Amino acid sequence: MNKLKIITIFGTRPEAIKMAPLIKEFEKRRNIENKICVTAQHREMLDQVLKLFNIIPDFDLNIMKSNQTLTGITSRVLQGLEEVFDRENPDLVLVHGDTTTTFAGALAAFYKKIRVGHVEAGLRTYDKYFPFPEEMNRKLTGAIADLHFAPTSGSRENLLREGVPMNEIFVTGNTVIDSMKFTVDKDYVFNNNELNDIDYHKSKVIMVTAHRRENWGEGIENICNALKKIVEENKEVEVIYLVHLNPKVKDIVYKILGNINRVHLLNPLDTKETHNLMDRCYMVMTDSGGLQEEAPHLGKPVLVLRNVTERPEAIKAGTVKLVGINKEDIVRLASELISDSSKYDVMSRAVNPYGDGKASGRIAAAILQYFNIEKGEYEEFI
């Protein structure tokens, strides 16, 4: 084998953010030929990341449709990847995380008897409907994968309990920490002037994202009503809510928060804007998975607006608190961090358990070791 041929597959912005540094690492490896295939499960937000990291896909399935369903996404990815795999015949297919692209990509590779590597493997809630459909996407991908790149030792333990052999699991840290080396700039000037006009030293700015499928309806309503009360009771607080474009989220958010002073409702920002806003805010409130990993790296406490999380390491480390979606609980825990500097300091100074910025190198080394191309370079993340 002269070069190991890999096809890296992703389709959404979160996947792209976390795969981008790995792609850059592969570019430096003389023994790896990496082809990039995007499904464009999310078109516009994916393209923002591709532009930021100067990534040009070799294949673009461009599957996104208006009002797309999970069934439609899955079937279009399977059909598109069959052609790509027949043409390229790769040695390894890499997928990331928990999206529908992830599961369909792994399944398409399995149908062709191509080895699968799963980046960010082993996260679990053990409730197949929370988060939906992500929990089952991860588990089904894990059942197919040959190589499991677990971000933490806790994720490895989940995989071992499910019968994955120890020698197929590599603890690497999370590649999102690698990405932030490219994106965070202390002198950054926002493209959005509304963000430039905020005094981040004088105000306690809360960055908010909340859009997950299981929170649609009553959950989003509770979160918005909690934010309204937090702002009304704390004059030093400003809220920046990055509102998902889905009408099932956007309509509720604008109805409840559209005319509230010190609440800024913005469309989703590109990756660099988001990371630099996170760097300047006081704390983060979110139902996102990725922000639970990213914000602690910048010393920002995170309140998770979900009832369960597949990232318990951050709770154990003290960088994250699981709040749920009850209005009064959200208000109470947010108010504690706003008013009690000692509780804030404990969370902001806790060590992020998700990485040291070297995950991509570990993954590349582990792959080359697995295929007996290079030996002895992989060292586990502790």
From TrEMBL:
It comes from the Bacteria. It is an enzyme of class 5 (isomerase). It holds the Pfam family Epimerase_2. Keywords: Isomerase. Its EC number is 5.1.3.14. GO terms for molecular function: UDP-N-acetylglucosamine 2-epimerase activity. Residues 24-367 form the UDP-N-acetylglucosamine 2-epimerase domain. Belongs to the UDP-N-acetylglucosamine 2-epimerase family. This is UDP-N-acetylglucosamine 2-epimerase (non-hydrolyzing). It comes from Clostridium kluyveri (strain ATCC 8527 / DSM 555 / NBRC 12016 / NCIMB 10680 / K1).
